[in-house]
Amino acid sequence: MSGHAFDKAEVMAEEVAKQARQACEMAEEMARNARDRAEEMAKHARDRAEEMARHACERCEEMARQARDRAEEVARHACETCEAVARHAWIVVHHHHLPKWLRDNEFLTKGHRPQLHSFYACFKSIFRVHTETGNIWTHLLGQSDG
What we know:
By secondary structure, the protein is an all-alpha fold. The protein has 2 domains: 1-89; 90-146, no CATH class. It has 3 helices and no strands. The relative contact order is 0.04.
């Protein structure tokens, strides 16, 4: 090879090497940009995930508060209802607590109906257990046979 061709080949090789170095630098720059962008996207995704988790926790806490409040309201209403029922209910009494006109059998000392002040209360008492339950029902059932 002549000196001139050799010089020309050498210049071309240097040019190709320079272009290769530039291509490597560009590839490195692109890789850095891609890494930076990936890190930025990862940070954004982490931030968004944390925000969503925080929002979900807040929503769960709010739902738990609402459930607790509703349960307290239901329990309070149930207690009020039970107390109202208890105020309108009667309990069986001992023989000596009855008025004289209701003391007809001194051998039955417990389980008497108290004195009831309305026909409706008296009628409802036929569905309760007391000393007169058997007597009432045998008379009622006996009447249906006739």
